Amino acid sequence: MEEIIVSVLQRTLVAGTPLLLGTIGEVLCERSGILNLGVEGVMSMGAVTAFIVTFATGSPWLGLAVAILAGMLISIVHAFASVTLQSNQVVSGLALTMLGLGISGLLGKPYIGTPLSVKMNTLPIPGLVDIPYIGRIFFDQSPFFYMAMVLAFIAWFILVHTSLGIKIRSTGENPRATETQGVNVSLVKYLCVIIGGGFSGMAGANLSISYSKSWIEGMTAGRGWIVVALTIFALWNPTRAVIGAFLFGGIFVLQYLIQPFGISPNLLAMLPYLATLVVLVAIGMRDSNKLNAPAMLGEPYKRGER
Amino acid sequence: MRKIEQLEMAGITKLFHGVPANKDINLSIRSGEILGLLGENGAGKTTLMNILYGLYQPDAGQVLINGKPVRISSPQESKMHGIGMVHQHFMLIESHSAMENICLGYDAAPLVFPKAKLKRQIIEFSRKFNFDVDLDKPIWQLSAGEQQRVEIIKALFNGADLLILDEPTSVLTPQEIKELFVILNKMKDEGHLIILISHKLDEIMELCDRVTVLQKGAIVGDAETKDVDKKILARMMIGRDVIFNIEREEIPSSDRVLSVDKVVVTSDKGIPVVSNISFDLYRNEIFGIAGVSGNGQKELVEAITGLRKIESGSIVLDDQEISNLSPRAIYDKGISHVPEERIKFGIAPGLFLYENAILKQHHLKKFASRLSLAYNTVKDHTRGLIESFQVHAPGISIPTKNLSGGNIQKLILGREIDDNPPVLVASHPTYGLDVGATEYLRKQLLKRRKEGGAVLLVSEDLEEIFELCDRVAVIFKGEFMGVLKADDPKLCDIGLMMAGSLRI
Q1: For chain B, what is the mean pLDDT?
Q2: A166 to chain B: which residues are within 8 Å by CB?
Q3: pLDDT band at A289 (very low <50, low <70, confident <90, very high)
Q4: Domains and CATH numbers, chain B
Q5: Do A181 and B87 touch (CB under 8 A)?
Q6: How many CB atoms lie within 10 A of CB B363?
Q7: How far apart are CA A236 and CA A26, in angstroms?
Q8: R_g of chain B computed on alpha carbons
Q9: How many domains does chain A have?
């Protein structure tokens, strides 16, 4: 029994890691006021580029780097459309999802069914891994897990305790006021969208060179959408994103665990979205100010217009 | 080290789409001086100051600091030169703390832990000017006066020598205005340069050393305040005499039209904000509700006009119970409404003039043809309204938001009273308007009264209350502190009643 619990928890963290990576990026992006619904597509781009580079070079770390770069590059499309052209961010985000899914499908076609010979191996932390139970759960993970945890902390620290963070949050709340304080609002938004894209690319790499070691079309399987939901669930806070991501990761694991008992996995696949709704309703009923959504989220900002 | 001893704007011209907003403006100010910039709305005061603050670029002319020409192409550069601006609509992030707002505007803010590292400095700094603000509270929890102080701290802490204040008193209570003036005088004594944009003559006379008057984008006068009086300034500003004491005829008020009895209303958060208010409203009467904003006026007005449900009590119009009817039913029964925040609640800003002119009446038979609106009738009706209510508009097929505040308000008032409704509820009808429009609107309210209408006037502007009202109620925390006749000598204690320390 103990064995099963430890294994379930360990797999929960594994399943939650890509969600956490994507969510940190989306939190940063939305805090600057840009809604990015392109996560699913960018993740897919990250997954396919990481796979191809790892396949070709044999180095998963190089694969990861290229995936981050690819995520950043393709996100520029969204930044350009929503910041420079001030177009509708929902439309542009959806377009990014389709673009990313399309390109990754095309690029990955020759690689379907060919498994990687190397992958990002788990990295047991010496010493810590020997702690009973906890060691196996927390310290026998892939490097993606450790990176996600550190990045979540860094993102939280930047948002709350640095001047840059104040600028990012102010931009999402009231870009006009922020601009009168001498902040380059467009630059902040570009920065956040592109960094957010890097995170999504990283989440994709996590899926193709660590979580599994193969590429199939549609392997992101809606995780990009869960990230968008998680961002709201986390109330735009990177630390709460950690809790949320692993909660939702747990639901992933449960899907397989509960199947033998005759409960449809589709029912569980719905849970992340249901949980997001429940959290929104619960907080909204208590105090709508607590909801904390960036005030100008999704609103195009036009300079100099009164 | 002061960065600005003397500042000059020379030959400034700014065109918007070929229309001059500023024409060849020259002005100068030196250390230890408060300069008033007086003019009606749309006279170009704010445009001129936005040029100085780097938000707009002038098409001609230059800014000279200490005699040397400087280029100011962004707020960032303006701040570097020692210029700070407090905008009319505060440039604050509502959900952030005062502290975070100050850090955002502070160029030398440390990259890491800015709040913790600057806190002491800012507290010491605010003590010097007797600013009393809780720095950790989010902005939305602060009063308008406190928010303004945050804006001033923000500018000064960033090293501003020249402070531009755009209509600083428009959102403040009389008490807060006094405190602001004390602060500004103190800054002046320390050698700061202050430019005060205003259209309120009293403020200019009280506070400024010199005044520059703008009209239609050009300077029409320049004077030491000690050499002029209000009448002269007013004439300069609008180019003719204004009647300061609008003649109010004595008309005996007649039958009761509206009766509000023990009404209780709750706010959006479910807290009771109007508790047991009762009053009657008669024909030929203007009944004023004075008080500081946020004491339940808004909710009371919404309850009477049907926008908000009442919890208990009754509202009776001509012997008919109207409480909790729909807004349209109440409007159709004869209560019209000039709402506060005219652009938000009074019009649909993007719709054409002729569409806004029939809002709330679009369902009436007279505007309908078989399948659609009778556009010709609607347009004729609009032209009539514009004509009789002196709305200055380039046409009726333009988005209403393109009009100035005064013209929008005239259009709204025209729409609401053209049909001679028995009751008119007017919330802050002249808030933020220039002298000319204010005078016109007040006269229209008095005309309604003469024609037999009853007017419920909610206002923070005591001058307006005294000028227009037959009876005045003072509201504080959702209760009437007293209802007095306009000639009651006890009205001189209205300030105490507004502050809740006196009940009559």
Answers
A1: 88
A2: 96, 100, 103-104, 109, 114
A3: low
A4: 6-238 (3.40.50.300), 256-498 (3.40.50.300)
A5: no
A6: 11
A7: 9
A8: 24
A9: 1
Specify if A303 maps to a domain.
no
Which residue, B292, B355, B349, B280, is CA-closest to B318? B280
Range of the domain at A106: 2-115+122-290
Has residue A288 got a pLDDT over 60?
no
Backbone phi and psi for residue B106, each to the nearest 5 degrees, phi listed first: -95, 115
ipTM: 0.84
Query: Which residues of A touch chain B, with CB atoms under 8 Å apart?
Result: 161-164, 166-167, 169-170, 173-174, 176-183, 289, 292, 295, 304
Q: How many CB atoms lie within 10 A of CB A287?
A: 9
Residue-wise pLDDT for A175-216, tens only, equals 999 988 888 999 999 999 999 999 999 999 999 999 988 899
Q: Is residue A192 part of a domain?
A: yes
Mutation for testing the A interface, residue in B72, B93, B135 having most A CBs under 10 Å: B93
Say whether A206 sits in a helix, a strand or coil. Answer: helix
Residue B66's pLDDT band (boundaries 50, 70, 90)? Answer: very high
Burial class (CB in 10 A: 0-12, 13-18, 19+), B128: exposed
**d(CA B150, nearest CA chain A) in Å:** 14
CB contact at 8 A, A219 and A212 = yes
pTM of the model: 0.74
Q: Which residues of B touch A (CB under 8 A)?
A: 53, 55-56, 74-76, 79, 85, 87, 90-96, 100, 103-105, 107, 109-116, 140
User: Tens digits of per-residue pLDDT, B357-394?
Assistant: 999 888 888 898 888 889 999 999 999 999 999 888 88
